[in-house]
Amino acid sequence: MEISQLLSVERVVCNIAVSSKKRALEAASNLLAEVCGAGMSEIEIFDGLIAREKLGSTGLGHGVAIPHGRFKDVTEAVAVFIKFEQGVDFDAIDGAPVDLVFALMVPQESTEEHLQLLASLAEMFSDATVRERLRQSNISTEILEVFRNFSPDDHSVASSR
After folding, report:
1. 63, 108, 111, 161: least buried by Cβ within 10 Å?
2. Which CATH number fits domain 3-157: 3.30.310.10, 3.40.50.2300, 2.60.120.280, 3.40.930.10?
3. Can you give the pTM of this predicted structure?
């Protein structure tokens, strides 16, 4: 599955103010609960994301985190992208504050899909141009274009203009 297929205008939010990793995960859980359609509550989603964080931070470095988890009530992969007003401490491997969060929920049994999505996201977010374009935009549709135009083969974002 393409990363861009997981997102829509409703699943991309810009300039949210949070003060901590916990608040960032709460914001992601709230948005996932609104869009996932699995009847899961924000608390159930938050608990799942926190359980994963206890295994090790999902902060990749360069201001990016990919909180994720497998959930029994989810029938297909669901994601949200949030750009925070300011970075927060996320216990990332490089110690940098996180301002870009791609939160992902997958069905409990979809181990392979989950790993493939995480690998694709890690590859995408390792590209400095992608991170910069995401940070420069405050419009959901522009952010969606960054995801749609990313080419993993050449690690570049095609110009949408």
Report:
1. 161
2. 3.40.930.10
3. 0.91
Over the chain, what is the mean pLDDT? Answer: 90
Sign of CA dihedral 15, 1, 64, 21: positive
Catalytic residue among 62, 68, 114, 155: 68
Q: Show the CA angle centred on residue 88, arms to residues 47 and 49, nearest 5°.
A: 15
> Is residue 16 a contact partner of residue 83, using CB atoms and an 8 Å limit?
yes
CB 157 within 8 A of CB 151: yes
Mean pLDDT, residues 122-133 taken together: 95
How confident is the model over 21-46, as pLDDT tens digits?
999 999 999 999 998 766 789 999 99
Q: Is 62 a catalytic residue?
A: no
User: 23 by DSSP, 3-state: which?
Assistant: helix
